[in-house]
Amino acid sequence: MAERIPDTSQLRAALAVWHLGGVTRAAQYIGLTQPAVSRLVQALEDELGFLLFTRDNRRLVVTEPGAAFLREAEGALGGLERLSVLASSLRRGRSGFLRIAAVSALAHGLAPRALAMFKQDYPDLAVEVEEADRVIQLEGLASRRIDVGLVALPASAPGLRVEMIVEGEAVCLLPDTHPLAAMEVLDPPALAGQRFIRLNEPRLLQSMTDAAFDRMGLARAVAVAVNSTPLMISFVAEGLGLAITHRMSTFVLPHGVVARPFRPAISFAYAALRREDDPPNAFIDAYIARVREVGRNWAER
């Protein structure tokens, strides 16, 4: 006899427990009671004939077969949700659906500018855009929750196609009233003694910038640690410190903030990610082409 397809509510409950690490947080996330989530997971395990989770010091730990099953379930559920959204879009007379994710440095300038151009050609296409780091984008592409991701390289994973967009160098952001704003280029000796706004999670740009200072025997004092590039820029605007960031994040700078090239040069390549096994998709092709066009024009400036 064929296996019965698990109920989607069971899958959502198990996936929530897996990602959030416990029944309590899973119940809060999906809006059910803890007993209801526990019953759904238990019913799914009974149907499958193996445990998805075991308890370790009152903490739920995913089993090896559980992890294998849930990874596949996430992709399948993502496909079902995509079908539902697509059907809704088509019922409203729209021509399709596109989901985009971009890292913080690209999400507040390049991505929306490219989308504005893209929507001129596809005004009826339903589009969703989210800001997400590289890891979340790789997971979203694998589960088919997103169609195209925009990242700074390096970024790769099995089954993904990496398409170059543009290259750019790191810049230093500072208030236009700062004495160093009169300089055309800024380097670690010029920046010695300044206080910096920096990201509070390990990032490639942060480590490369720290290495540039370390090679000259200089340290960077941290004024504020933040979790996103837009926050970093906002804090620079308030005069709380300087920041070294991706040039691609300077598409939209608030009044009073200027960017100066940082030396030694820290170069980055930016790319679009998509699934290799996707059938030909004119929407994805067109959006990536617009992203590349915007990136090229910005680099030439």
Reading off the top of the CATH hierarchy, the class of the largest domain is best stated as: Alpha Beta
Major beta sheet, strand line-up: 4-3-5-12-6
CATH architectural group of the largest domain: 3-Layer(aba) Sandwich
Distance between the termini: 65 Å
Number of strands: 12
What descriptors fit this protein?
301 residues, alpha/beta, Arc Repressor Mutant, subunit A, D-Maltodextrin-Binding Protein, domain 2, five-stranded mixed β-sheet, three-stranded antiparallel β-sheet, 11 helices, globular
Any overview of this molecule?
- By secondary structure, the protein is α/β, with parallel strands linked by helices.
- It folds into three domains: about 70 residues, Arc Repressor Mutant, subunit A, CATH 1.10.10.10; about 100 residues, Periplasmic binding protein-like II (D-Maltodextrin-Binding Protein, domain 2), CATH 3.40.190.10; about 100 residues, 3-Layer(aba) Sandwich (D-Maltodextrin-Binding Protein, domain 2), CATH 3.40.190.
- Helices cover about 45% and strands about 25% of the residues.
- The protein is built from eleven helices and twelve strands.
- Helix 1 packs across helix 3 and helix 1 crosses helix 4.
- The longest helix has 28 residues.
- The protein is globular, with a radius of gyration of 23 Å.
- About 35% of the residues are buried.
Helices and strands, with pairings:
Blueprint: H1 8-20, H2 23-30, H3 34-48, E1 53-56, E2 59-62, H4 64-91, E3 97-102, H5 104-107, H6 110-121, E4 126-131, H7 134-142, E5 148-152, E6 160-169, E7 171-175, H8 188-191, E8 195-199, H9 204-215, E9 221-226, H10 229-237, E10 243-245, E11 257-261, E12 267-275, H11 282-300
Parallel strand pairs: 3-4, 3-5, 8-9
Antiparallel strand pairs: 1-2, 5-12, 6-12, 7-10, 7-11
